[in-house]
Amino acid sequence: MKKLGKTLGTLAVLAAFALAAVILGPAVLGYDRYVVLTGSMTGTYDPGSMIFNQPIRSSDLRVGDVVTYVPPTSSGYGTRPITHRVAELGRDGQGRLSVRTKGDANGAADTWRFVPKGTVSVVRGSVPYIGYVYAELNTRRGRLFAFALPAMLIALSVMVSVWRDAGREMRRREHERTAGAAPVTSAT
User: Fold this and answer.
1) How far apart are CA 125 and CA 119, in angstroms?
2) Looking at residues 164-185, what average pLDDT do you find?
3) Residues with Cβ < 8 Å from 62, sequence gap 6 or more?
4) How many angstroms separate the first and last alpha carbons of the chain?
5) Which residues pair with 120 in a beta bridge?
6) Dihedral (C-alpha) 129, 139, 121, 39: value to the nearest 10 degrees?
7) When comparing pLDDT for 136 and 185, which is higher?
8) How far is Cα 3 from Cα 160, in angstroms, rounded to an integer?
9) pTM of the model
């Protein structure tokens, strides 16, 4: 049982380090992280995937690149970033680069175009499902769980250790007390 506990503890620590590496590592390398929330890119990036984006110059953007951007306000979509594939590149009325995108799982291209400002965020990699964990860690409940659970496990480990040591000490004292007493004999 003790060996199982140590093995599970080791696996939990390794899993925590692996999760931290996946979530924090790309940020250290200069990548932006996003969580895919909808099914518009299903098949390529399913909901719950974490995607890692690299900013590139707008002039380096190509049809087929997958980008994350905030749609123009005229789209009616809101201010949340979306991730779609570049379907068409062109120029607007002022000669600026104009981009039309399409979700891989959507039947048609987006009805709007956007004009990138200097750089655009291109997807360079992803990890499925880890986005659910990342999103949860960005909630109050998730952060509480992430910090409280290890603290509770450490406290439990210390309490078990103290309990075990106290039991050993009680047995040692009992053994000393009984070892020093005169042997009991029975007369017949």
Assistant:
1) 18
2) 79
3) 86, 89
4) 47
5) 56
6) 40
7) 136
8) 15
9) 0.71
The C-alpha atoms of residue 72 and residue 79 are separated, in whole angstroms, by 8
Q: What letter would DSSP give residue 99?
A: E
Residue 11: predicted pLDDT: 82
Q: What is the CA radius of gyration of the chain?
A: 29
Q: What is the pLDDT of residues 67-112, one digit of tens each?
A: 999 999 988 888 999 999 999 999 999 999 999 999 999 999 999 9
How far is residue 169's CA from residue 176's CA, in Å, rounded to a whole number?
11
Residues sharing a CB contact under 8 Å with residue 27, sequence separation 6 or more, in sequence order:
33
Rounded Cα distance, 3 and 94, in Å? 70
Domain boundaries, the chain: 31-128, 139-173
Cβ atoms of 120 and 60 within 8 Å: the answer is no
Q: CA 122 to CA 86: how far, in whole Å?
A: 10
Asked whether the beta carbons of 109 and 53 are under 8 A apart, the reply is no
Nearest alpha carbon to residue 88 among 102, 104, 70, 68: 102
CATH T-level topology, domain 31-128: Umud Fragment, subunit A (2.10.109)
